TrEMBL record:
GO terms for cellular component: cytoplasm. Signal peptide: none annotated. Pathway: Pyrimidine metabolism; UMP biosynthesis via de novo pathway; (S)-dihydroorotate from bicarbonate: step 3/3. Its cofactor is Zn(2+). SUPFAM superfamilies: Metallo-dependent hydrolases. This is dihydroorotase. HAMAP family: PyrC_classII. Residues 89-194 form the Amidohydrolase-related domain. InterPro entries: Amidohydro-rel, DHOdimr, Dihydroorotase_CS, Metal_Hydrolase. It comes from Helicocarpus griseus UAMH5409. One of its GO terms (molecular function) is metal ion binding. One of its GO terms (biological process) is 'de novo' pyrimidine nucleobase biosynthetic process. The lineage of its organism: Eukaryota, Fungi, Dikarya, Ascomycota, Pezizomycotina. Keywords: Hydrolase, Metal-binding, Pyrimidine biosynthesis, Zinc. Its EC number is 3.5.2.3.
Length: 361
């Protein structure tokens, strides 16, 4: 059986470098699922309503997250917005905020106050470069003219190259890579430019997203060759590629029955498990060879490379609670729904068999 060599494997807890934890009822529901997915370190996205544009908001949000689940390290970010100045960057750095996320205006959930023109942020980027803060890019152009959701990422790549050229020391994470073209461009850039890959983009193609609102996210899943390029990048052993789930919970009603389908796939409770499943399917379909998927590949992609890139703030702390996970093949099952009295969310691949995961120390 494919990847049965990993049945019972013990691994360092995963780090997930792209999560949406929301606020209020949904936050209370999803934060306790972080560790169920084998994760003990998360990089938290700032696209709340209103977005997190001040140090105070980021820190009070962090306190709320910590009180719900103290056994997770939360790395916080700000939302790139006209109100952010070089002075904000200096105080954010001093307060331990790790990075700034840029959303192009209007491309995805809660991006109404996103970026229209990168040039106006050059002084902010220059200060971020100086302070060694990370720029997280949602790498898509808004659909307009001949740009569609299928070409939105590829059409953004010249902007990435331009930013990298102007700010070569600025550490940039291109989030949720979804195309072979983006993988190639990240490879072409210097060591300051890396990319995260989600579990669902390792699994899906556009046909899945079109037929199922629970597989619809931004960037949308693309073509078979794109998905295969992501599988190869994630198992390549190249430090430039590491895991960020982009788990993006929306209440069930926002996925079915609303006027518009909300973009976002909820993967938090099975984050690590889904990655193993995706690699397994990759081997079964002949895209990967079984020997390509080693323990080292898992450890690197699921934690080590991201922790190294993010640096001291993200390093796995020595021995202690929440450091080691064990995975058992075929013994887990994805819930039909995750719910509280106040809200609910449908997980990716509901009802399907997956790996069972437990923290063992
Ligand atoms: C995210 C969300 O719901 O906040 N949605 C998504 O489709 N990925 C926003 C984002 O990361 O684009
Ligand atoms: Zn996201």
């Amino acid at each position: 059986m494919t990847l049965s060599k990993f049945d019972g494997i013990e691994l360092p807890a995963s780090a997930d470098f792209h999560v949406h934890l929301r606020d209020g009822d949904m936050m209370e529901l999803v934060v306790p699922t972080i560790r169920q997915g084998g994760v003990n370190t998360v990089y938290v996205m700032p696209n709340l309503v209103p977005p997190i544009t001040t140090v105070e908001h980021a820190l009070s949000y962090k306190t709320r997250l910590q009180s719900l689940e103290p056994n997770v390290t939360y790395l916080m970010s700000l939302y790139l917005h006209p109100s952010i100045t070089p002075e904000t960057i200096i105080s954010a750095k001093a307060a331990g905020i790790v990075g700034v996320k840029s959303y192009p205006a209007g491309v995805t959930t809660n991006s109404d106050s996103g970026v229209l023109d990168y040039a106006s942020f050059y002084p902010v980027f220059a200060e971020m470069e100086k302070q060694d803060m990370i720029l997280n890019l949602h790498g898509e152009c808004p659909s307009h003219g001949d740009i569609t959701v299928m070409s939105a990422e590829e059409r953004f790549l010249p902007t990435l190259l331009d930013l990298h050229k102007r700010f070569p020391k600025l550490r940039i994470v291109v989030e949720h890579l979804s195309t072979a073209a983006a993988v190639e461009t990240v490879l072409k850039c210097g060591p300051t430019v890396v990319g995260t890959i989600t579990a669902h983009h390792l699994s899906l193609i556009v046909d899945n997203a079109l037929g199922d609102p629970f597989c619809f996210c931004k960037p949308v899943a693309k073509l078979v060759e794109d998905r295969n390029a992501l599988l190869k990048a994630a198992t390549s052993g190249n430090k430039k590629f590491f895991f960020g789930s982009d788990s993006a919970p929306h209440p069930r009603g926002a996925k079915r029955g609303g006027d518009k389908i909300a973009a976002g796939v909820f993967t938090q409770p099975y984050a690590t498990q889904y990655v193993l499943d995706a690699f397994e399917t990759g081997v079964e379909s002949g895209v990967l060879r079984e020997e390509d998927v080693t323990r080292e590949v898992l450890e690197n992609f699921l934690g080590r490379f991201g922790r190294e890139f993010y640096g001291d703030v993200a390093r796995q702390r020595g021995e202690g609670k929440g450091q080691v996970i064990r995975l058992s093949k075929g013994k887990g099952k994805v819930a039909e729904i995750v719910q509280s009295e106040k809200t609910d969310v449908v997980p990716f691949r509901k009802g399907e068999v997956t790996w069972e995961l437990e923290f063992i120390s």
